Amino acid sequence: MKPTINRCQGNQTTIREFILLGFGTFPQLQILLFLLFLVICIVTLAGNILIIALVVADQHLHTPMYFFLGSLSCLETCYSLTILPRMLASLLTGDRTISVSGCLTQLYFFGSLAAAECSLLSVMSYDRYLAICKPLHYASLMNSRFCIKLVVGSWIGGFICMAVCISMTSQITFCGPNEIDHFFCDLSPVIKLSCSDTHTVEVTAFINSSIFTLPPFLLILASYVCIISTILRIPSTTGRKKVFSTCSSHLIVVTIFYGTLVIVYLVSDSDTLRHLNKVFSVFYGVLTPLVNPLIYSLRNKEVKEAFRKAVLQSLGVVYLWPLDTFWRKIRTPSQSLKNTLHPCSEEYCVSSLILAYLFLEFE
Q1: Which of 92, 122, 279, 298 is the most buried (most CB within 10 A)?
Q2: Tell me: the pLDDT tens digits for 23-41?
Q3: Pair type for strands 13-15 and 5-7
């Protein structure tokens, strides 16, 4: 499909559509890539939506830590919906064109959510700092109203920041070429297609990106320096492991996010790695939202416990007390097994007990 253009003064033309080259250099792999990214999209959305549902439904997860985790999963869901559907449609139909307005819209939501995630990750590190280093003041400082303000501020700040950049980018003129060597609209490759003076836009984008990446990163770094120093002062090895386990998942997520961010926007600008920019961008824009729920579900006992309760309850097992008590009752021959469940038929109790035993054995 040829790009739509409008004639301007002289020999210049104004581009109305861009062509996202994406992975078009591998035409024989289009179907395989479509299936791969479709699976990634489904797993990403399912994992993040599951965490949101568990945080909302389980009373034991109604704490600031899991409130921030649910907010992060909500953000990652929106993040995936900004990039993946358009890329899947391009791989399936072969139509790689996107209007200038559509490109700027995608760029706006992508940049806003990325800025909000930087802020939210720093908020989560501050929460862990208060919980570990200031435990006596944690409940009074990290109250529900303050938590809501932190999350809302992260979202609003990201969207306002990107609105300034997009409003300035929409004023520049694109005269060709119209091919973007990427699978989504990012600011740097879009600006390179402009025939106007983009110095002001570039300076504004640099200032905004510096504000929303460097201070949050420094806050995260300072928080974990204090956290690690506090952990090292704990005398017992078991106590150190237990405390560190409460923030290890967040530390892994921060490392992956900022690691890929640096590779995409700093290291990949070098001549030797520029051709791998799209590969690194896949890790940053596609795989990061995928691995976040996996990390929190595999390394977090409370999330795994909430998930197990939800599965067992959906199968008809209703608890009268926590699972650890339930397992002890099962393994105590002198106690009546029927007392661990609500009054029901004998066949129902036996079948529920078998299901619970299978979950325990395959844990």
Answers
A1: 122
A2: 777 778 888 989 999 999 9
A3: antiparallel
Strand blocks (E) in the chain: 5-7, 13-15, 17-20, 97-99, 179-180
Paired with 6 in beta bridges are: 14
At residue 355, the pLDDT reads 52
DSSP codes of every residue in 59-92: GGG-SHHHHHHHHHHHHHHHHHHHHHHHHHHHHH
Structure tokens at 156: 């609003």
Cα(281)–Cα(260) distance, integer angstroms: 8
Strand pairing class (97-99; 179-180)? unpaired
Question: With 0-12 CB in 10 A as exposed, 13-18 as middle and 19+ as buried, what is 267?
Answer: middle
Residue type, 138: Y
- Token pair in block for residue 293: 């729920």
Count Cβ atoms within 10 A of the Cβ of residue 153 and give its class: 0-12 exposed, 13-18 middle, 19 or more buried. Answer: middle
End-to-end CA separation in angstroms for the chain: 54
pTM above 0.85, yes or no: no
